Amino acid sequence: MFQPKLCMTVVKQRGAGAPFLYGGNLIKGIEAAGEFGYDCVELHVRAPEELELQKLEQALDKIGLRVSALGTGRAYVDDGLSLIDPKTRELALQRLKGFLDAASVLGAKVIVGCLRGNIPSPEQKQESLELLAEALARADLYALERGVTLLLEPINRYENNYLCSVGDAADFIRSAGLASTGILADTFHMNIEERDLVSAILDNAGLIQYVHAADSNRLYPGGGHTDFPALFAALKQSGYKGEISAECLPLPSDELAAKRWLQNMKGYLSNL
Question: Which one from 42, 194, 243, 247 is the annotated catalytic residue?
């Protein structure tokens, strides 16, 4: 049986157009995920202190859910921290370590997506890659010591200007020698960047450790034209053991998107 845990995204402060199913109080978001029938939650906050771990753990125990992953992107979006910006990279790395500490308590993974920043100019690409490799090597060791998995998320070229494909991320992880870092494969970004989604999954099976599922238009699966049956069959074939999370637009409403995502996902998976 292929039965990955299904996760709902919850963000403390959701900006316009952000692909999270619940925005607002984290505890209320966790309660909503439990009511809808999700297995776990993926949480996004600006800084780890906003998690309020003691209250969070009490709510998770009461509702019977766990945290699958912590997102770090708000540190970039809200505070401008970047792992390749000489002015902010040390602060970004300290923020990332704080997320890793919280993840070690929660048993969660930690996502590095837009926190890696954007390369300022083509001439600075190699320097930026070296800066990222050095920062993630430090974070990777910190994660390894705490039993936490880091997730490098390839992001499409219109939102991030390097490491946009799954293959690019895999090559980077291998070249940097990152032992506790895997890939977060996001089907929305993959639909833009990959020639063949199935091949991208099968070719990098050993490194893909987490999945974001959103359709070609970033709606819930079934709202666009992505071939999810073929994609999930490839995940099953690859021996995938991670979670699948709902990072999609909250349309037509938070509740309907959350319910349709879960309903359609269960339908796809039940046919494998």
Answer: 247
50 is catalytic: no
Which residue segments constitute the domains of the chain, with CATH numbers given? Answer: 6-270 (3.20.20.150)
Cα distance between residue 229 and residue 140, in whole Å: 33
Tokens of 68: 């699958």
Pair 181, 153: CB distance under 8 Å: no
The Cα 51–Cα 33 span in angstroms is 17
Percent of the chain clearing pLDDT 70 (strictly above): 100
Is the pLDDT at 217 greater than 90? The verdict is yes
The CA-based angle 75-91-80, given to 5 degrees, is 40
pTM: 0.97
Other residues' Cβ atoms within 10 Å of the Cβ of residue 86: 9
Closest-CA residue to 258 (of 57, 10, 3): 10
Catalytic-role residue among 42, 153, 193, 194: 153
Q: What is the pLDDT of residue 43?
A: 98
Looking at residue 13, its pLDDT comes to: 87
DSSP 8-state secondary structure symbol assigned to residue 70:
E
35 given a catalytic annotation: no
